[in-house]
Fold these 2 entries.
Entry 1:
Amino acid sequence: MRLLEDRIRKDGVVKGNDVLKVDKFLNHQMDVELFTEIGKEFQRLFEGEKITKILTIEASGIGIACVAAQCFGVPVLFAKKNKTKNIAGDVYTSKVESFTHGRVYDIIVSREFLRPEDRVLLIDDFLANGAALMGLIALVREAGATLIGAGICIEKAFQPGGQRIREMGVRVESLARVKSMSEENGIEFCG
Ligand code: 5GP
């Protein structure tokens, strides 16, 4: 998606060799007009698919998922990062290793909101090693719901997540695919 790539070139900041900061427009300050275009693009890509729910993970996926959900006309459910030791029996749970913080945490969704009859589109801001998506996929499977695919804003294609998830047979649509990046040479996108 040209609009998103141009914005990443303009306002994205590369940290080290594998972290892209997009705090200016995507996951701290949020450009809702850009989000609307992102939502429309996801809708165009998944046109013809029956989708009943969008599932994301707190916190940075929520804003984009909400705007996308408005395009699809469905509710958003976000997996919560569980902070308590006791997990109640009325939730589905899985584990995620955080890319940005390097620790493992549990994510949960209520059984009440993820049903076997749901047809789920996953939405997230970044795809790096694929742990966040894999955690969400596990929740969908545990619920017996149907996974339609995943819509990602920025895939760092030089990291293994995209290939891993696609090899699982899951449809992944990424709006901007970063081929390589460095503080010295900036960002290069895939073809
Ligand atoms: P994964 O689980 O695929 O390794 O990483 C995806 C999650 O880590 C996303 O939900 C995102 O919040 C965070 N993340 C991964 N890479 C980056 C990055 O380069 N920049 C930012 N801001 N977040 C990232």
Entry 2:
Amino acid sequence: MTSPKLQQARDFEARYGPHIPDAERPAFHATPTIGWMNDPNGFSVYKGECHLFYQYHPFSNEWGPMHWGHLKTRDFLHWQRLPAALAPDEAYDAAGCFSGGAAELPDGRQLLMYTGVQRERTPEGFLQEIQTQCIAIGDGLDYEKVGQNPVLDAKDLPEGGSRIDFRDPKVWRGEDGAYYAVIGNRTRDGSGAILLYQSADGCRWRFVRTLDACQNQYGRMWECPDYFALGGKQVLLTSPQEMTPIGLEFHAGNGTLCLMGHTAPDGGFVRERVQAVDYGLDFYAPQTLLAPDGRRIMIGWMQNWSTVGAKPDHCRWFGQMSLPREISVQNGRLAQQPVRELESCRGPAVVHHHILVSGETNLPGIAGRVLDMTVQIRPMGQGSYRWFRVHLAKDGEHDTILRYKPDESVLKIDRTRSGLPHDIVNTRSFLVRPRGGELKLRIILDRFSVEVFVNDGEQAASAVIYTRQEAQAITFEAEGQLLMDVEKYDLVL
Ligand code: FRU
């Protein structure tokens, strides 16, 4: 039965969503049908198709009572819009259906596991949010919340676990046929932990163990975990709030964390290495799925909580997902590449080899805002250039800049002049690993974003831009001299 609240959301999106012209959206990045989008939810395969749900407030371009929006895709680039899947229509989720995951049940139905948020009054009279985990089961279109909800609450927490910060279950079916979920929690020391739960049927859950804990080292609360095997390692992803900067690896605010390790004999997680997932300005709360062909594919919310207040006036949608990325472990680090499906959307190649860059130059056929371009640079001997820049989405007023300084091995992304008159975080620098002085940047543009994949996916950096679409120019600039190869494809979807 569709509740009046869900029906209201569905009616609203059906009425107003189609008014948004395609040209006002990215060509291949997922956006909300209308209104606000944050975290990816339930990114999973169901009946051979990939479903993507998302944190959704259809009624405005601001965060509000959370619904789940719903999309599906066969190629990670074309997204079919489905009606909203969940609304905050029960006492236990009246303050929002927060993030969660999805899995296919053996009987062919689809299970959604999400955080139900309710408010209660403290003895002092303050309103406080309580978070529990809830289940809805459906057929890929309509979902019924189960009578046992909430299926996990305060009594299922380990000692000292917070019932206020207990959210974002990511669920999967294990090879043993059981269901598992990782859930973010706050511990007694005020910082985050990732809890592992198990269930035989997807509805009755039990606490297994704490997989890892923040201990106030990498941010505070750990949100939106994911946990999977990859390239002989165990990978735990989470998105910390209140991160304090660590070198150029982690910046203040909301970050992304990849904890790489292995499974201990008792089934626990042993952390070996820590790194950022994305080094740009806008990436948070990623989730992965295991595609039928064995690829582990990750998608993130291409936004940041620090900058969501800054948006174009009267925009009818806000928030978009990153390009889905194939992830792997390379030399003990998380590597990411755009999904290979993107390559089949490439138009004719525009190729320039051995271009001498000294000062600023543009190249025939190199311009545009929906494209896939690889730029490779190499010095002409030791110290031949001080810096190199790629200027994107450029016109007289606008300019989005990637700058590389070889003596520091630092790549900087700068969207100060990318269409927003707000003094938000507009630049970020990070260390890259040049190979013998060479650097390779694969740059994906899709109208309102730039995603950079460094050295065949060693690192990724994402940023939203708001530059008007007429700003199409791309130029290359160096102080000193270097040699460059460029290969560019317009993307046709
Ligand atoms: C992360 C997050 C989640 C929560 C959701 C609410 O971006 O804060 O922890 O479930 O957003 O919309």
